[in-house]
Amino acid sequence: MRVQRKQESKVLKAVAAGTLVWLLSSLTQLALLPIDRSLITRQLVANSIGGLVTVVVTLAIQLRHEEVHCQVAIERAAIVAELNHHVRNAVFPMHIAVQALGDADAKKIADDAMERINIALKDATTDALAGRVDYSSTNGSSGTQA
């Protein structure tokens, strides 16, 4: 339902832009050129074509914007997946070693630590995909965006 509204909104914006181009060009030509019936008809047809071209260009720009947004989301997902993989590979052997020792307190601490890591990775994934954090930053800071 939400996707359909977004698509309708994009089409309405494109049609509004086309209508605005058609209306402004028609009014400008009517104001500047002499009034001749055959000329007015040709002008209106030409302005209508200009409005349709505007609709197509507006939709193409919106499509390109979505394409770029999708590419950025894919890159962020890949970065977070790689982060997830490395963290789990680093922590899992330690977790297994603690489980093998059999100490109940150590098991509880290890289980709690793994749960905190799982929550942190889920939050990091959500933040990265929503664009709230940029993990591709090379300046060494957290990369939090305002």
Tally of separate domains: 1
The portion of residues forming beta strands comes to: under 5%
Radius of gyration (CA) equals 29 Å
What do the pLDDT scores average to? 80
Distance between the termini: 30 Å
Helix content: over 70%
Q: What is the number of E strands?
A: 0
Secondary structure tally, helices:
3
Could you list the spans in which at least 5 consecutive residues all have pLDDT below 50?
138-146
**Gross geometry:** rod-shaped
Polypeptide structure, described:
With 146 residues, this protein is mostly helical. The protein is built from three helices and no strands. The protein is rod-shaped.
Question: Could you list some keywords that capture this structure?
Answer:
146 residues, mainly alpha, 3 helices, 84% helix
